[in-house]
Amino acid sequence: MSAQRMTRGSLLVSPRARGLLQVATLVLFALPLAGCGTGALWDKFTAKDDTFVEEPADKIYNEGLYLMNEKKDMKAANKKFEEVDRQHPYSDWARKSLLMSAYASYQGGDYDGCIGAATRYVTLHPGSPDAAYAQYLIAASHYDQIPDINRDQGRTEKAIAALEEVVRKYPTSEYATAAKVKIEGARDQLAGKEMAVGRYYMQKKDYTAAINRYKAVVTQYQTTRHVEEALYRLTEAYMSIGIVGEAQTAAAVLGHNFPDSRWYKDAYNLVKSGGLEPSENQGSWISRTFKKIGL
Q1: Do 169 and 146 touch, CB atoms closer than 8 A?
Q2: Residues 118-128: pLDDT tens digits?
Q3: pTM check: above 0.90
Q4: How far apart are CA 284 and CA 281, in angstroms?
């Protein structure tokens, strides 16, 4: 029996010893992993329990206000406002924080962030007294990104659409009044773009193309500061291609509506140089346009 145990000793292991061997094997496998810095599983067992502690909504909100108003740190303030929404999503503080997040983004020049937060606010709280302001922030973000007249004016058109939305939805609000002012500024930008392209065509002596650009200013952007020059340029272009009746009408309408304009003096002298006088043809598209708008 003893001989049998000696020859097969490695196979005859008691249950207790077998358990100890299994534990030892696990330890041996674990040690190399820890030594190589890959002991993620081991770290989970040894990590401390960082229990999440919820903070009062008003405390976080006021911290955001402090960072925004005193420290002028819009990004840090935004994180606080977002934290209010994360910890207290259904509270009134969350609603306020969402609006302040839009405002902080706007102040920090993060227009996309502002548009996103303000759009979410209008969607979630359409009946709120501050919804008009949120809508205005969206429009103002587009407006502040209007490029110069030498670039594509797609952003300008977006700004006008957003500003008109403010006027349409909240016509009696103070923001509607501010939006109307910005709309005129944006329309002036579009008119300026048309004028720049028209002048380019004039230099190329492509008078028909130039006339089409100036016509757009007269028919679509009559209330902008560019309309005076547009009428003069129409006088100039029509004189260049020999359509003197339209040139006379453009000069006459310019003089009637803007008698003190320097552009009228130039238009008058240009017509006179051709032995003509400014004279309005009531059937001209120029005359009809100005009668329609009542200038």
Answers
A1: no
A2: 999 999 999 99
A3: no
A4: 5
